[in-house]
Amino acid sequence: xxxxxxxxxxxxxxxxxxxxxxxxxxxxxxxxxxxxxxxxxxxxxxxxxxxxxxxxxxxxxxxxxxxxxxxxxxxxxxxxxxxxxxxxxxxxxxxxxxxxxxxxxxxxxxxxxxxxxxxxxxx
Length: 123
Prior knowledge:
Layout: E1 2-6, E2 9-12, E3 17-24, E4 32-38, E5 45-50, E6 57-59, E7 67-72, E8 77-82, E9 91-98, E10 112-113, E11 117-122
Parallel strand pairs: 2-11
Antiparallel strand pairs: 1-3, 3-8, 4-5, 4-9, 5-6, 7-8, 9-10, 9-11
């Protein structure tokens, strides 16, 4: 499975961005999809995940209520709508895929990773 993330950029605090991640080479509808982020000098952290059919979602406390994950299985794409962005949201954002829901919060559980897209929030 190959993942291609896009949509990052520079945005002012309070603004919005929408990230996309397109999957190829596998059965997208069977994959749990997640978003992680990594800021300079920090470990990669869980942001959100969505089950294979979109019926279940999970968010980190830091983004709950501001970010929304969704997916379009017909387009092999997962989205991350980010609203009310804060300075601390600045990071390289990665999409990732795994075949089971059991350990979605841990990056160690994901078998496939995209290349990352940079999100920079300015004051």
